[in-house]
């Protein structure tokens, strides 16, 4: 019940989050939330504008006594990842998120919660609406389409903002201060193939890989989570030699920035091998479940008999593409040599579709080192081109290089130590924050990232910690009081 969310402390934050989550806001479909945010700013009597790509900017003057402080930009993105469980009946285009309290956590029923980056947006809204929070002059920047292309940040013109410090509210651990992030590039392999009539001696089966956790393809790529597309490919790999297995269609994964949780395949096997097929797939499924039992205890491989498909994939293409998928890197490619524990370079094989004579394989390659990003992207390109695919690189965005001499970093680092009697974790992250892109048109802006604890982002297991939100809100208020004076 969303009313229970409104009673949580701090109420100003959770009420704004509830207001925001009542508005459908999937990536690429932000029209309603853009209108919602513009209406919010205009009702407050604040200067409000929408730029040419759809970003919303709301300006609020400094409170009394804070006019001599450096002007700041508070930034979060309006869109959210739309993921749901297969058995959840939900339309992200028309419905608001159905939230509930679970102990110290806020969750959504069967869908992503939108705390990434809705809690950041709600924070800024609460400050814009406030009459008793001390702050310098603020430009609130609400960007669009962060999750599927960062086109909002890319389209923001230079000179539009006057702030000297940017507070990005998109980090997911409350003891972390973000000073850098990975860049990325979309790698997409496509090809066509001939379909053949399925021989009469074949029997149809459906295979489903499900029950995986999924998660953020950057922040969680090192955790050893299962990738449904790789698991499905492993199951199908030797099928032709053993059972005459032929692929009719595959549909696995969804968004590039989400580790794929499910994959579905329709296949045909030689009827004479039916018993052996069912037995061997069950044995292989058990092996895979044992490998993943710690991280993926709910992993299931479901095999069921279906009507024999009318069409199957050309055998040469099937053999080539399954081998290319086996060879393609998924997960961590290289750890950082400079920052202990940081993933430097990775890839997520996010989407695999084979149907009606067309193949599309969608990946997201990330790295904090530009040359390593392209090295891995070219490795994937080579794997897929060897099987006749055309490979495209699109949606490329830069990383954010850490500045350890940052003035605002020194403010946050000292404040955190003073407030919580421990050192904050100052780190770069293996995710695509908008700071690197914004820095291209605003190279002199001092940037920092922080936020409340959010777990399971980009999956239906996404949850926001209530106690952490309270800590984070307190931290935000102190940061605003301690913005440095203008020189």
From TrEMBL:
<dbReference type="InterPro" id="IPR002933">
    <property type="entry name" value="Peptidase_M20"/>
</dbReference>
<dbReference type="Pfam" id="PF01546">
    <property type="entry name" value="Peptidase_M20"/>
</dbReference>
<keyword id="KW-0645">Protease</keyword>
<dbReference type="GO" id="GO:0070573">
    <property type="term" value="F:metallodipeptidase activity"/>
</dbReference>
<keyword id="KW-0170">Cobalt</keyword>
<keyword id="KW-0378">Hydrolase</keyword>
<comment type="similarity">
    <text>Belongs to the peptidase M20C family.</text>
</comment>
<dbReference type="GO" id="GO:0046872">
    <property type="term" value="F:metal ion binding"/>
</dbReference>
<dbReference type="Pfam" id="PF07687">
    <property type="entry name" value="M20_dimer"/>
</dbReference>
<keyword id="KW-0482">Metalloprotease</keyword>
<dbReference type="InterPro" id="IPR001160">
    <property type="entry name" value="Peptidase_M20C"/>
</dbReference>
<dbReference type="GO" id="GO:0005829">
    <property type="term" value="C:cytosol"/>
</dbReference>
<keyword id="KW-0862">Zinc</keyword>
<dbReference type="InterPro" id="IPR011650">
    <property type="entry name" value="Peptidase_M20_dimer"/>
</dbReference>
<feature type="domain" description="Peptidase M20 dimerisation">
    <location>
        <begin position="208"/>
        <end position="293"/>
    </location>
</feature>
<protein>
    <recommendedName>
        <fullName>Cytosol non-specific dipeptidase</fullName>
        <ecNumber>3.4.13.18</ecNumber>
    </recommendedName>
</protein>
<dbReference type="GO" id="GO:0006508">
    <property type="term" value="P:proteolysis"/>
</dbReference>
<keyword id="KW-0479">Metal-binding</keyword>
